[in-house]
Amino acid sequence: MTRRPFTAILAMLILALLVGSVSAQVVLRMTWYDDGNEGIIVRELLDRFEAENPDIIVVMDTVPYAAGILQSLPLQLASGQGPDVVRVTQLGVNMQYYLDLRPYLSDPGYWEANFGPFLDWMRPAGSDAIPGFMTQLTVVGPFINRTLFDQAGIAVPEGPTTWEEWAAVTRRVAEATGTPFAMIMDRSGHRFAGPSISQGALWLDADGKPKVDDPGMRAMMQLMIDWHADGTMNPDIWIGSGGSYVAGLPEFVTARVVMYVAGSWQVGALTRDVGDAFDWQVVPNPCGPVACTGMPGGAGVVAIADTKHPAEVVRLMEYLTQEEVLAEFYARTLFIPGHLGLAASGVDFATDLDLAKDALNAFASQVPLIHPIAYAMQAYALNTPYFNSVRDRLTQVFVGELTLDQAIERIQADIDEAIREAGGS
Predict the structure, then answer these.
(1) Within this chain, do residues 290 and 301 fall inside the same structural domain, yes or no?
(2) Are 186 and 245 in contact (CB under 8 A)?
């Protein structure tokens, strides 16, 4: 054999080996959305996973939250065109499409011990399925622009303070400083739920079925109607949104509002976008006659049952849920841990900004005050259509399309229809 043919054959063998290696790689698709910097961090973790698992490539598709997760994802899942794994917040709404990881996991007990209370948010009632894990635990609550209070010479309220009292004091601050608006709230039924529960709203009857019309629900709805009518709240958030979820973050970042009702997931974004340009602070949830509660929640990464590569998906999920991996993720994203072991041991948050550390501690202090109804609503399988109907029908009252009585009737009809479509009665 001459040198030339031998070299050619060797090259062909090497090429065949390379092609075989590439073709043996499994490609997993992860759909992701960002609140802050977490996408960059999880991509670094995925790169490490790929280095340790060279037979798997993880393609990360980052999408807008409203358009990509709330609107497009359900259609993709229904058509069997969904990703292998996805990050979601409305954990129960698509649970019929989730893969049960339990049969594949090396240690299901680890998942039960560390994610147990949150697994009920993503699996059917009575099931022991393990569909995924929490990327963070969230708590709804208000941020204030403390600098505006200082400029106005008005003290920040301390101790239990009602919603009406907060509205009055933030209006005074706004007037004194020339700030356009006193308060805003994300255009979200989930954000509205905590304040309504504080006013006495039950949301569910004794049998766990939706019941909209009660004095507490009416009381909080009327406050929201009044605040949008008198200019306390920026109408562009709820009225000028085109009928979808809208975050009020840009208004707060640009110091156009005194109080912003959102939640702990925005700490990372405020650290990045505001830093110490002005003093921002988390204050306790305002009170009603029944409670001073926000809503619990969070985002989770779940596996999709249609995946053609369940074994590889489980390897990815087990890697991401290792305690040291999650500890780094929570620390760098400034997220409250959705892992009980790390919540107990504590996370050394990776920030030198005292405003961020104080905000995270303030949100953590609100967890014991979360009302049982808030937990029940977070676990309710059809909470998404329920929350969305409250949001949209209340907006119709703001613009004069419906009366409050009509809105309450429509919400009840909407959620009753959602139950029927889901096969309930």
Answers:
(1) no
(2) yes
Average pLDDT, the chain: 92
Residue 343 pLDDT class (50, 70, 90 cuts): confident
CA separation for the pair 171, 258 (Å, rounded): 8
- 261 & 132 share domain: no
pLDDT score of 199 more than 80 = yes
Helix (H) or strand (E) holding 44: helix 38-52
Same domain, 229 and 111: no
Q: Are residues 200 and 308 in the same domain?
A: no
Find the distance separating the first CA and the last CA of the chain, reported in whole Å.
Answer: 80
Strands, DSSP E only, in 244-379?
A: 257-263, 280-282, 296-303
Task: Give the separation between CA 173 and CA 154, rounded to whole angstroms.
Answer: 7
If you write DSSP's letter for every residue of 331-371 in order, what string do you get?
HHHTPBPSSHHHHHH----S---HHHHHHHHHHHHHGGG--
Mean pLDDT for the stretch of residues 263-281:
95
My answer on whether 378 and 322 are in the same domain is no
Both tokens of 341, joined, read 């072991």
Count of alpha carbons within 13 Å of 138, Cβ hemisphere only? Answer: 26
Asked if 122 and 152 sit in the same domain, the reply is no
- For residue 6, give the H/E element and its range: helix 3-24
Residue type, 105: L
d(C-alpha 65, C-alpha 90), whole Å: 11
Same domain, 281 and 320: no
Domain count along the chain:
2
Q: Is residue 16 in a domain?
A: no
pLDDT (tens digit per residue) in 175-190: 999 999 999 999 999 9
Token representation of residue 407: 């809105």
- Residue (of 162, 387, 349) closest to 271 by Cα position: 349
Confidence (pLDDT) at 14: 59
Boundaries of domain holding 144: 140-296+366-421
Would the pTM of this model clear 0.90, i.e. be above it?
no
